[in-house]
């Protein structure tokens, strides 16, 4: 079917497509054996030969967006990235819902790339390859190793590169058509600085956000989508991966990271929730103007107040590993000996001889911020004196280790609020709102043929 559709109708179309697929499956199940064939009013032979065979390498279109094809393979490869972020822990029902959401994202991505081409915005292949190499490095792989890894996971380098191209293209379109026309007055910035100075010592939050747009007519559906995403996150899904794939805010490209922000700078609904959260907790979906948000509390601190967790530590790590297949019982004596010997460390100078006696690996790191460590270790290290060690920690799979505190540089008093940073934050918020309206207009004017 060929139609000019709005964002609302597009979403309805995707869920209707799912319903039609389900209906087709039921219809197939109700077909009887060959003896019942006449009831269909079709003159079907009881003994038949099928000539030719289906070719699994022929990829049929799932949607055609303004003449550009999105194949089922495109959807499968992008869906595999979402499943990878969930470590495969997704039910069949959830997989189908994610597939429909991925299709919607690919339609938006296609519209953004098409708009960039119409505006003669160029994204060079070498730029995409450079970003892809950075992604591979995050996975501690070369681009070639990343290619093979993605194939093994049922995805492809092409899928990630397409997403990178879409993000770069859209950012440049916004930079040309929206950013130059967004103005923030110096008085506005100064007003915020004055409020920050007046609220010294108040809490400040570093938040991640997944924003799903919705209208009054589609809000129930949007809330349901938000609930499903929240469930996946609570089961161990990667917030950053979900934000990149599903968030409709401009922060999707950076995994939904809003940066440091005070409750008063958030919409009222989010301002009520953020102070009640614990670091690492997700909350939502929370109704906000224009849709719903899912929040992640990445970190928190006090405004304009030095935070002990900003201290920079000098550490030594001693680690032992275990052969594959060793049980907890078998490893017990070795762990006990490791704990007993490392308790004898009385300073970093004595760490190496003890490590050698245990055949332990030793690693130095002189630039570790406390807040960059796992929350379980932060309080332990803040309470250690120089020369002391942590309790052993780890697992059979990853090995057991201890940390020795060799030195600590305590943070200086926090600097005052940055005029430029606050102005940039206000500009980003306004660009984000206009970008959402821009994309809604592209959806409204799009010609999409669902196959």
UniProtKB/TrEMBL annotation:
Keyword ATP-binding among record annotations: no
Protein name, entry field: Parvulin-like PPIase
Domain PpiC residues, every copy: 202-299
Record keywords, A-Z: Chaperone, Isomerase, Periplasm, Rotamase, Signal
UniProt cross-references to Gene3D superfamilies, sorted A to Z: 3.10.50.40, Porin chaperone SurA, peptide-binding domain
Residues annotated as signal peptide: 1-27
Entry-linked InterPro entries: OMP_Chaperone_SurA, PPIase_dom_sf, PPIase_PpiC, SurA_N, Trigger_fact/SurA_dom_sf
GO terms of molecular function: peptidyl-prolyl cis-trans isomerase activity
PROSITE patterns named in the record: PPIC_PPIASE_2
Family annotation (PANTHER family): CHAPERONE SURA (PTHR47637)
